[in-house]
């Protein structure tokens, strides 16, 4: 559910051949980022542990290392060959036959929290354009050259899931409905009218999930908490059964030497809070803060890595602009900007609560998971295409990262674009809200690490788009495309382009300084047909991981 997904065929090759190949490619491209470019990459988290519910596409796409038989009432799980590959990479800590000693959860070290110093606003285009100058001129041979090396012994290897995608038990033990519970019950919203009512049934199969995690050999597991399982109406009295489930999960992880990485919000707002007005009203923002505070107090003695939001860009664009995610608002010119403004402010509030009340005793770190595609200028020697590529990244990533990791405010490119379009539309003020100086100071520095979800690459060029209707998409003034020679996946907008990973990680370093970067989600989808060989996914992971490793040293 990380993107607005549409299904497409793999082409001539069998889907598992493609998938294994694609995973191989991703691993391969991660390594150069670490080894060659001196980028601080601390984790690689695979999406996902097992096949699950994939948003509007239902169960028609499979991201898992384990095949789930959704036609079987027991939701039988079977490892794909990519699971064995990932286990081998973890055991060797990379791509050489070297025995590594994996740390137990009690000894896994997260980077020490440090207040990030303010950075000046980004230029237009950003100085990070040096990444295109440095790497876009590579020959295909130079770009794709495979390297054999290993990661540092404290590298975090993990897999991910999210509550609605795997838990099921949608109304079990007093759980309240979430927006996704209600959204999926409207005919036509989801392919084949699928729902996550049962999903993988992880709520009732905790031991099976823990067994898979232990067998993989991961030292980290990223999952989300279902807010309405803890607080059925989003606030008030917590559910003992809901708390018990997450305590059992966390205790099971720690007992098996696996460090929990917890996302507080992964798209599933309690429906009772949406009925109050959702992310646009103070009552819901206050409820989120109180829910986060409860989680810190209840689970923080064992959870040392927290993320407030998963992909806030997707929350605001898919939920409030395009209407493809709940709450299905289609107000693309202003609602995404208003809601993003609120998310940034409540994220900062939650960060400060953890920092002031829990960090000293619990010793954890807190961030949020951002996302973007890498983008290549159509002509990297043409200034307007360089500016278009930079503008894309500022709208996709800088929208949330620039306030937190730079100066507490939106990128200059974004402020100018939205402000100029608003003026041309005859509006008295910009559709992009304004932070007060006090709010800027409060938001700046409210993340301990840079968490990012990475999938694919696009090609962009400048194009002046229409003024009406007002839209966050039209505000950017770019045209995006892909190279048709890039391998396809079951997600039509996700071409498998491993080398984009290295370039994106380099751009983050150049743009936001020497902050520790954690890849909190990466994966590839195949179609719904059973395919245990999983060769395409294997290729994907090998090449993507190798590309990240190129930049470590």
UniProtKB/TrEMBL annotation:
InterPro entries: GH, GH_1_N_CS, Glyco_hydro_1, Glyco_hydro_1_AS
GO BP annotations listed: carbohydrate metabolic process
Catalytic site: 521 (nucleophile)
Source species, domain of life: Eukaryota
Alphabetic keyword roster: Glycoprotein, Glycosidase, Hydrolase
Pfam family, one: Glyco_hydro_1
EC numbers on record: 3.2.1.21
Any one Gene Ontology molecular-function term assigned to this protein's record: beta-glucosidase activity
UniProt record similarity statement: Belongs to the glycosyl hydrolase 1 family.
Assembly information from the UniProt record: Homodimer.
PANTHER family listed in its UniProt record: GLYCOSYL HYDROLASE (PTHR10353), LP05116P (PTHR10353:SF36)
Protein name: beta-glucosidase
